[in-house]
Each structure stands twice: as C-alpha cells, then as structure tokens.
C-alpha cells in the first residue's frame, strides 16, 4: 500500500507554505496499471472541463498559426521530416499567463509530488507541449529518450479529443516484447510509461488528433 502524498501550496500572501492532502484515485489507477503492465492508463486523468478548455486553447493556437512542426532529435541537431512524424506543437509555459495551462501545470505538480512520495522516482522537472496531428499524419516507431541525454524518465500523454471513434484511427501503438497494445486517444485519458523502455508510434489519423504530451525529467 502506497503512502499518501501531500502537496505544497502557498497560502495567500503568507510566505510560509502549508500542506494539504491528496486523495486522487486517478493517480492510483494510473500507477497501478503501470506497475502491472508497463503502461499506465487512467480515464479522466484530466477533468472534462479542463480537457475542453485545453482543447479550445489548442484550436486557438492552431487558428493563430502558432503551432510549429515537431522535430526529430535534440536541440541543434533537430531535424524536421514529415515522413517520420507529422505533428505540430506548442510548448506550455506559466509565463503565458493562461489560467487553464496553469491549472494543468498545477495538476502536474501534484502528480510529480505524488509520484516522488509513493514511488521514490526522484523527478525534478517536466516539459509539456500541445500536440496536433492533422488528418493523414502519424509518427513512426521510436523511443522518447534521446541518445545523448537520460533526463527524460517517464512519458505522459493526455488526450483532448471529443467523441473519438475507432474509425478515426490515430491510436497510440505500444510495442511490447511479445505483443502490440493500441490505445485510442479518448478525451481526458492519461497514458504513462518509462521513456527509454517502450518503442511506440502514433498510427495514421483520419481526423485532427489533439493531446498534451510531455516528459517527467531528472536534473
């Protein structure tokens, strides 16, 4: 049985923080399935209202032409190749001052603290971006950790797609040693796995496919 997690919060204008209790069974569900199957899955990891607000944000960003093509590789050696991946992205940042982004990042703070308290993972940071695969796009089989850095420890994907149907395609395909696992990108669903352990791909999508994708990091 895991110990329960506590989240550090500021209280008004008082500098001294206080602790309040997390009893988030969604976190338990995600980690229990991760321990059992190497892939954690939890419905409603994002609430219905928060997923809807983030979806609206993503649509606004797309309409404003602020999404950029996602690269392959790291930093200066990054390349863009639509025969490998076709998504466009926009990084989340508290400096944007968007209340829904900040609500999402508050939830990630809670999850990281929960994870560190219950599983002793030593996570010290994270990075997340909005992700949009337009109709006809995909991402070939890959792992998330860069060869030149072990900073990415865990991958976490949260989907924003309303009324997704099997015929829409766009599943996340996880390549286990002895089988493949296809996961539909249903709104609010969270998926969690170790960044270096499992090859995976995004299958061809037949309608725009939206998510927030990111990594929990060390150092």
Overview of this structure, please?
The protein is an alpha+beta fold and 219 residues long. It has a single domain, classed as Jelly Rolls. It contains three helices and 13 strands, in the order ββαβαββαββββββββ. It has helices at 25-37, 48-63, 99-119; strands at residues 6-11, 14-21, 40-42, 68-69, 88-91, 125-133, 139-142, 152-159, 172-175, 180-183, 190-194, 199-202, 209-217. The strands form three sheets. Strands 3-11-8-13-6-5-4 form a seven-stranded antiparallel beta sheet. Helix 2 crosses helix 3 (99-119). The longest helix has 21 residues, at 99-119. It is globular, with a radius of gyration of 17 Å. Mean pLDDT is 88; it is low at 1-22.
Q: Please, how many domains? A: 1
Provide the structure class.
Answer: alpha+beta
In N-to-C order, the SSE pattern is: EEHEHEEHEEEEEEEE
CATH homologous superfamily placement: q2cbj1_9rhob like domain
Helix content: 10-25%
| Largest sheet: spatial strand order | 3-11-8-13-6-5-4
Query: What's the shape?
Result: globular
Q: Largest sheet, described in full?
A: 7 strands, antiparallel
- If helices are DSSP runs of H or I spanning 4 or more residues, what is the number of helices? 3
Low-confidence stretches: 1-22
Oligomer: single chain
